[in-house]
Amino acid sequence: MDNGGIWPADEGYFQNIRETYLQERIEQLTKELADKDKLIEQMREALKQIRGALNWYKEQVSNCNRKGDIGETARDQLAKDVGKRAKAALSAAERVFK
């Protein structure tokens, strides 16, 4: 078939262009997916830290009004913590959930 010299007549030429584009697109999407997987893992770790801090505070606060050593220990632990666990958990969340 005569195409007037504008386009190569070989269909293989166009096939190579399509395959090259598809390979580049696959590589790009693979990288994007790996980046998203990493972000998801960071989010899971931040949520784990937040849950741990909240559970610790829940336990301490629920024991604060108890009499005896249990109540005294819980109040002492809260006083010594001065919000460090909460600050650490919030900091982790802020790094990930921008």
Look at the structure and give the mean pLDDT. 89
Approximately what portion of the residues adopt beta-strand conformation?
under 5%
Number of strands: 0
Q: In one word, what is the shape?
A: rod-shaped
Question: Quick one: biggest sheet?
Answer: none
How many helical stretches?
3
User: For the terminal residues, how far apart are their CA atoms?
Assistant: 58 Å
Key words describing this protein structure:
98 residues, mainly alpha, 3 helices, 0% strand, rod-shaped
Give a structural overview.
The protein has 98 residues and is mainly α. The chain has a domain of 63 residues. The mean pLDDT is 89.
Short description:
This protein has 98 residues and is mainly α. The chain has 3 helices and no strands.
Topology:
Blueprint: H1 11-64, H2 69-81, H3 84-96
Helix pairs in contact: 1-2, 1-3
